[in-house]
């Protein structure tokens, strides 16, 4: 892999909590407007620039993109974002604090913030496992074009290396540049600047020995950044400019052995005309169905135990569903996934839900919310049933990406999300 250090554009230490934000795609315009209320320094004014207009303004309005440019210039003029004088790498750590039902409480993952090479994406060495939508790609491409910058990073995984782990361990012994717990999600974000030229050269060399990286989160941002980089590559070539900054885009790279993918669960509004008993009987064709004889709030006892085991919440009770042998193909990297098994055997065959992206009868709940959220949505009457899945593994994602296959919709949920605004990458 080819990476490079870059002159990051960053908030001063005392402003980082005011400037930084959640990613643009995890909240809608009104949620961003509410979070940014009373804070002119919030990055939402740049990455969700429609909040600078009256509610209901189309986020694709030309005025909105123009506002992003104006706000970015304002942030730099006022010193809310300041560019480093020299090219650097950075270490970004995320910690899930002990809270709620999350099994990951107290866990920290350490990523290296780098400039990733556009050609590695275009030529398939940066590998993807999800499809992207052209309209969402074009929106982010336009955002990158008008700002001439990558405002938000993408989230990559790389095959872990002990030598990189050792470098990160040494860097993180030093005082961090930023260290704060972000509202409203409550994750800790810690950030170090790497100034040592020898360490920077060593990181670049080690990455050159890594054959592939994998997009964990941020498929649309990756496609958009690479798309703009490809456009600018043609222009720069005509001008005789070699190795321009626009040949790289902003990425945070985590070792694969530090990442945990959280379950991505399903809730459904109705049983497709079946009674609860008829639905349970229909499941018995393909699953061993066993009721849990524990309180419905004993979430640790009722969560899925392994691959091909599911937890169903229906009528105030939890059930264990285990797919019967022969109902899936262990030799098919897609067919063996629990999202595929549940989609085919339950959602499609029994409930008639064939399009997970568009069917309004189904919704999806990230496992960071716990099984209690599934129970709550069913008990409230909003949903009729909930299905908890065992999470996919990084190995499964890597195997699928290496084979050129694409994951089914709503398969992976990575948490925490990368915080935006800790560092920006200029294409100039």
Account of the 3D structure:
There is one protein chain. By secondary structure, the chain is α+β, with helices and mostly antiparallel strands. It is 32% helix and 22% strand. Strands 1, 4, 5, 6, 8, 9, 10, 11 and 12 form a nine-stranded mixed β-sheet that branches. β16 and β17 (317-323) form a beta hairpin. α4 crosses α6 (134-147) and α6 packs across α9 (219-239). The model has no long low-confidence stretch (mean pLDDT 93).
Please give a quick description of this structure.
This protein is α+β, with helices and mostly antiparallel strands and about 425 residues long. The protein has 14 helices and 21 strands.
Give the helix proportion (percent range): 25-40%
Termini distance?
22 Å
β content, as a range? Answer: 15-25%
Q: What's the tally of helices? A: 14
Report the count of strand segments.
21
> By helix and strand content, what is the structural category?
alpha+beta
Instruction: Note the main sheet.
Output: 9 strands, mixed
Provide mean pLDDT, rounded.
93
Global shape: globular
Poorly predicted runs:
none
Radius of gyration: 23 Å
Keywords summarizing the entry:
single chain; 428 residues; nine-stranded mixed β-sheet; 14 helices; six-stranded antiparallel β-sheet; 21 strands
Secondary-structure blueprint:
Blueprint: E1 3-4, E2 9-10, H1 16-19, H2 29-36, H3 44-47, H4 62-77, E3 82-83, E4 89-95, E5 108-117, H5 118-122, E6 126-127, H6 134-147, E7 149-150, E8 154-158, H7 162-171, E9 178-182, E10 187-194, H8 197-208, E11 213-217, H9 219-239, E12 248-255, E13 261-262, E14 264-268, H10 276-283, E15 287-291, H11 299-302, E16 309-314, E17 317-323, H12 338-348, E18 362-366, H13 371-379, E19 385-388, H14 394-402, E20 413-414, E21 425-426
Parallel strand pairs: 6-11, 8-12
Antiparallel strand pairs: 1-5, 2-3, 4-5, 4-10, 5-12, 7-21, 8-11, 9-10, 13-20, 14-18, 14-19, 15-17, 16-17, 16-19
Helix pairs in contact: 4-6, 6-9
